[in-house]
Fold:
Amino acid sequence: MDQSHHENENMGAGHITKKNYIIGFVLATLFTLLSFGLVAFKDSLPKIAIIISLSVAALLQMFVHLYYFLHLNKSSEQRWNVIALAFTALLIFIFVGGTIWVMYTLNLRMM
Structure:
């Protein structure tokens, strides 16, 4: 146990406990069930409320996974991991946004 704790500290994962994994699992499960519930009862809520609620639940679930399972936080050991994640998100935004822009422009020119 002591050996694995030092290995986690050396890799920048911090102090990992079963309690954190259980909290993350419960939160992820709740957000998933919330999403399924919103879609199952879509007739009782306005469409825009469902879309906003699903987006918020997805965003919160993403943060739960990043914090509890990938152990990304504001500590100095995780700074480079957070920077790498932010750079990856920027690249994905550029690639997806650029692709949508090119396809939209081509569609306008073809019509």
User: Anything to note?
Assistant: Residues 48 and 54 are 10 Å apart (CA to CA).
